[in-house]
Fold:
Amino acid sequence: MARLTHDNLLRARSLVALYPQERSALIPVLHVLQEQDGYLSPDGIEHVAELLDLTPAEVRGTASFYDMFHLEPVGKYLVAVCTNVACMLEGAYELLEHMEESLGVHPGGTTEDGAFTLEDAECLALCANGPCVTVNWRYFGDMTPARWDSLAADLRAGRLDDEVPPHGTLCRVRRAVGLMAGAGAPADGVGGDGAGGNGAKNATLDDHGRPVELGTSRTTPAVNSSLRATPPRGPQEGGHHEGGDEEDGR
Amino acid sequence: MSGPRVVTSRLGLPQSWTLRSYLDNGGYEGLRKALAMTPEEVHQATLDSSILGRGGAGFDAGRKWGMLRKAEPVYLVVNGDESEPATFKDHALIEGDPHQLIEGSLICAYAVRAARVFIFVRGEMALAQERLQAAVNEAYGYGAVGANILGSAFSVDIVVHPGAGAYICGEETALLESLEGKRGYPRIKPPYYPAAVGLYGAPTVVNNVETLSNLPWVLRNGSAAFAALGEGRSRGTKIMALSGHVRRPGNYEVEFAKVSFRELVYDPALGGGIRQDRALKAFIPGGVSAPWFGPQHLDLSLANETIAEAGSMAGSGAVTVMDETTCIVRAVWRITRFFHRESCGQCTPCREGSGWVEKVMRRIEDGHGRDADLELLMDICDNIAPGVSWPPAQTTICVLGPSIPSSVASGIRMFPDEFMDHIRLGRCPLPPDRLQTSSAYA
Structure:
């Protein structure tokens, strides 16, 4: 696959400018590369190495330490099922078994049509809504076999394309400005290099100028409701978050 | 009477993650107050609040800042790599109130005169990164970050840094290595503290998301108001992340040291009791690195020192409840599997011990256990953390290794018969539907 495109090279350079030492930008830049190709290709790794004055072995050596980086292509949707203890108590292994059967792959495998790669994941920090699943790192809590089936159908039909970007796309909100505080801060930033030029006021546009909706995504119903900041005493005055579990995001 | 809400007061408000909502609800007032004080006064206010770190170790935050080596530059690194299984409080704080974290980070940065702030957010938390980056962009536009913050002479930049998936990066020296673009290997100690040798070798403050999120309230309401909450060394409030077989799993902010585990699990406004009114079998009081507790520990108060005296740790505030239908062997096995997968591999006791323990646990759960296996497990644990006591002896660079025996020793000591039944029967003695508890809210 490819080296970084011109636009992504500019993005990478603006990331490098944020750190006192350029190697610190390695992981953020690898996320850019993975967003571009869906995985870290050998050519891309070589390009990143050139950019940061590292050897390709150093880049690969770092990348291979981290679970999120893939050195081989994966499916369009990377599905991570948490099976750690909190989700396990909620039936995560039964869910995983169902997903293995319905997709026809075991964890680590990719479906023949290239749509799904299945992963058996460690805790994803959505434990009040177990079992939880992420698809390309977008959260779906309170998962059941039936809910998975309809989610998989929605994904295949492209009905969730706005909420679940292709594998590799992590943060769709770009930094709007470069460093401003002086003290050795380079004057250039994202805004000045033509890589998007987003000002602070349109900060929630992605690089294609499309708005990134941060509020209403139904991929994370659970997060908003999982934090029930309830007073420690006086349950009769439990506050405005009261309600059965069923109403609370199910 | 309404309980105190220090860090979760805005969660649940419409669009709570936006600048508009934040400003409508007291946002950036604490920073304004801080900027009207000297950095030393802000540091003193933090010391006076006696806030302990909320990431797991419970180190006094103000003291941590005071340990900075006198050199420039100083960096502030925010630990948002929340990965301890069953912990989900920082996830909620970043997604729900990113400006509060930004404001708290700025207050700290001002007090320690940080040259730059890096907020390390766990890689898997895509929405948290998006909301935080959008909030940082808004804060720059508002003048709260960057040059001459809120019209003052103070200037600092905030950089949102994504992780890439590694539990060990929650360990502060591993996090710094990762932030330097390397494999997340914990650093050899000494030097013990990033305050002396941190990011790029510079003096560095590493604080947890929840810790810093407390600071805007502390500055706005005063250290005395904060220290008036809680008891002993445990002051203020603590977010308890409650999971497992309770009716109402969730994050609950409670006054530190004033609530017991029993109240957390059974109070109708908190955990709401165990589903289907089953009996509690065991619970993990502070993340999977902590030794387990049983029903006899329910009346302990949620305070760092109380839990430590009882032989475990408050850790990150993650409490996982297991009811009478839980297969303890399976739960222990799953936790050992986690440590095996996440061991960074630098130290032999952890790298080899975690895999060995997992294999033995797996064969017991699968019905192939041997009579000598319990002795073997305890022997391996003793090699990882000699004495298998708490706090554990350390044979490794970081505390991941010594955390491995916690669940294994707890399971064997609390439920020896259940382990032996697995071995004698050659199968799990619990009903086959033991894990079919999802949606069983009753």
Chain B touches chain A through 107 residues (CB under 8 Å). The beta strands of chain B are 75-80, 116-121, 157-162, 204-208, 230-231, 234-235, 237-244, 250-255, 280-284, 318-323. Residues 328-425 of chain B form a domain with the de novo design (two linked rop proteins) fold (CATH 1.20.1440.230).
